[in-house]
Design goal:
2 copies of one chain form a homodimer.
Chain A: H1 2-6, E1 9-13, H2 19-28, E2 34-38, H3 50-66, E3 71-74, H4 77-90, E4 95-96, H5 99-109, E5 114-119, H6 121-126, H7 128-136, E6 141-146, H8 150-155, H9 162-177, E7 182-186, H10 194-201, E8 206-208, H11 210-224, E9 237-241, H12 245-255, E10 263-265
Parallel strand pairs in A: 1-2, 1-3, 2-9, 3-4, 5-6, 5-7, 7-8, 9-10
Amino acid sequence: MKDLRKAPIGVFDSGVGGLTVAREIMRQLPDENIVYFGDTARLPYGSKSKESIIRFSRQIIRFLKTRNVKAIVIACNTATAQALETVRQEFDTPIIGVIEPGARAALHETKNKKIGVVGTEGTICSQMYTRVIHEMEPGAEVLGKACPLFVPLVEEGFTRHHITEEVIDIYLKEMKESEVDTMILGCTHYPLLRSAIMQYMGEGVRIVNPAYEAAMDLKKLLKERNMSNENEEFNKYEFYVSDAAEKFKQFANSVLPYNVETIRQINIEEF
Amino acid sequence: MKDLRKAPIGVFDSGVGGLTVAREIMRQLPDENIVYFGDTARLPYGSKSKESIIRFSRQIIRFLKTRNVKAIVIACNTATAQALETVRQEFDTPIIGVIEPGARAALHETKNKKIGVVGTEGTICSQMYTRVIHEMEPGAEVLGKACPLFVPLVEEGFTRHHITEEVIDIYLKEMKESEVDTMILGCTHYPLLRSAIMQYMGEGVRIVNPAYEAAMDLKKLLKERNMSNENEEFNKYEFYVSDAAEKFKQFANSVLPYNVETIRQINIEEF
């Protein structure tokens, strides 16, 4: 039992976006060890089929299990939307996604029960946010919008650029004109556009980032199963990618509150 | 020998872009059979490492060889830039890329020997166009520019949109102000922005699309090796992808001059 407590948390994403979730876990669960995997060889996930996302997720979970993780957080909305239900049935390791926590946080914030969700094509078309919100609150209204250009704009560094403001206007005009009072940033890249989106939507709309709530869920799960690490030794964070480790390292060091020195590259197709 | 003549041409790309090259082969070599592969599960290639692009290209070539192709065209600038030299040494099947043909066409067009190249990060950073142009004409000047947002803009359908015009201005301002008189569209997606780019660059700049010249090179290669198909039976085009066959089919039918009915999906990681 003691060994399981010391075991790391597995966290994965299609690339760097999930580091915002890892950062939240580091903050809220400072005694936990983390193994992070970013599937940089096959990103982005947003426009790929459910079938492929399930296959990729299975390979990543098999890899994380070789690192003896005690629990897994899918820090990617697309992978949560397309693969969580399937992989939960296939693996015995407990798996948390970002959609249930995001839905719960939005329902906590909203006053008029009209919630907007922005995400990738895969996340929005899956309607998973709508389904989960309706299970929690059947009377809620959910307005979803896929925003495929947000990720490339963030990756090109256009987070505060007039082009990005115009793209936000194209994608979110309808949502702004609706009665939505709460909006979920349903893609881990989008928090990097948070201030531009907040400014556009105005003060009347609360912006929800599922990362915080996902870390809370993890904390609760570990407590319930008596798996929390109470060891106060220096904790260990390991980072793996399927491509371009050096580029990932730069981004990781700009997002995380400590200096990442080693990123290991693996061939995920072998798992 | 007769069998080899009837064998198909293998054509591959990270996704749909290479269909513009396949279309050119269909036009110029109407008696040839084609097996096309689009790596839609792992696209885009543009920002991924040389190492990964070589691994992906090897798998695809191994797959195309199971279809008994007599020659292969890498209809992707990034894969040509990162992998052509390596895979040419490893496989006995003749392999043609799009960079040599594009470079030759540009040198044929230019009067002042100042040539611009636009492409993905991988293509531009590899400096392969510069190297190949200098081998052909040491006195030429080459100005390269990576344009990472062009592909997502095309895929979002913004080919004639003021946002795209603004992005063109951001990327190509320096090239417009230079003395470049010829510009290579060094990514198979970019011909879809051809009219917007031509309008921006003005009449003084010739725009070169390597697809036409690549098909010419293929024709020449087949003749030299006595491998041209002289059979006038109904020719066969086969299409394979690694993900989302239905979406590919829609795009294929908008690009190709005949109705594509079957797209087969395979797991390329097994090759």
